[in-house]
Amino acid sequence: LGIRTNRICCIGAGYVGGPTMATIALKCPHLQVDIVDMNEERISRWNSDDLPIYEPGLGEVVKACRGKNLFFSTDVKKGVEEADIIFASVNTPTKTQGVGKGRAADLRFIESVGRTIAQFANRSKIVIEKSTVPIKTAEAIARVLSANEAASGSRKNFWILSNPEFLAEGTAMADLDQPDRVLIGGQDQDAIGVLVDIYANWVPRERILCTNLWSSELSKLVANAFLAQRVSSINSISRLCERTGADVKEVSRAVGADTRIGPKFLNASVGFGGSCFQKDILNLVYICQQFGLEEEGAYWQQVVDMNDHQKVTFTSKIIQALFNTVTKKKIAVFGFAFKKDTGDVRETPALLVCDMLMKDGAIVHVYDPKVAIEDALQEFKYHDLEVNQSQFIFSTSAEEACDGAHAIVVLTEWDEFKKYDYQKFYSKMMKPAFLFDGRNMLDHAGLEKIGFEVHALGKAR
Ligand code: NAD
Ligand code: UGA
Q: In which element (H, E) is residue 32 found?
């Protein structure tokens, strides 16, 4: 290709850009990795001991590489100029206005990366889509780059690759260290080879899958859709279990023991959350519709609809059990993050559960080991949900949240929730003391022995 391959720049220092590039820096000491972002606060936190995201194991890797071959900066121009390999790891949220509002991906950030590269690139470069994007986005980036090239009369080459990320939050460092697969899509075998060689520093070559650009872009959306579909499927069955006397945990075990199905992602829950499942499925639905595939789009839409339904029915069950009134009742909410081992609250199911409880008059006392109340309030705001702060209180401990509460509602599966002295909590609560386990993670028989009225998911009372 005639380019140097020892300088990498990643545009976007978020949940993906940060851990992914830190891992590349760790595994490839011969490469220099620059991560740039326009968000000054984020970058200054990456350069401090107080990293902007919580991810087990991340701090150690950043500490080992920062200042050696890993650098964080707001200087996007310099980053683009100096690197020959540029990753775009910017956010691709759902559009909130205009055509495709509420479904299509908002590609303004990815397009802005294309324009930034067009503006500052001083020589030929490999441009890699790390963000999750709709199929054919590489074509749009290529057009932005080539149109600007033509206009400036220069003769640089840009090779576009798709390299979607499959890490999950909370286990990102382990996922990056030992990925099930790395996926690389592209049109130019030499450009693909450059990226394969980087990953081959620690990923066995047979796990590095190479495809055409469009298969790679689409596979990312499909992988998330399949994972989310499993959660919605088991959640739909949890309702049937509650009506019939079957136990969803036993059903999951029995079904998952079939090696063709497998045991993972079959935990019934209050609903899936996170920044990606919903947005990626909505995007898939929108793409199907764009191609006139109405039935196919409707099929995937059901996965999101079932998830919304699960959050509503779970919360309705709480209100119903508490004698159809939660007005002025203190409710202890255990966990606000969308899953354990992260402080991320994007699209967390806790948002709708708390909103519904508060609309019914409850005073919600949340305890989460990692979530900051500002982030929770920001997420309500993002969803245009009003919060009366006298009804939404963050407690500094689970015990404090339980003091005088009518119910405990478990919304995140943090390990520490299993270790608590529930006898002590029970003694401080109003009676009857209710416990709603939105993650089916606690010892229900033990809690009942203490005196709790326990409502498990997918199990008749
Ligand atoms: P994020 O919001 O945490 O980070 C994106 C960053 O990009 C932000 O800090 C933002 O300031 C920066 N940015 C946006 N436009 C920029 C520009 N033009 N110049 C410089 N900086 C810019 O997002 P994320 O969670 O890291 O997700 C990034 C992408 O990866 C998304 O497409 C997402 O779907 C995908 N993804 C996310 C996960 C996950 O677990 N969060 C996993 C796999 C894939
Ligand atoms: C998910 C995918 O697992 C990653 O492969 C993907 O890269 C990422 O989305 C992305 O594209 O952003 P993440 O959202 O971080 O990762 O976390 P998951 O572990 O997938 O959990 C998603 C949601 O589903 C959580 O709310 C979790 O609690 C819920 N879930 C998961 C269940 O309710 N039941 C399960 O059995 C599994």
A: strand 32-36
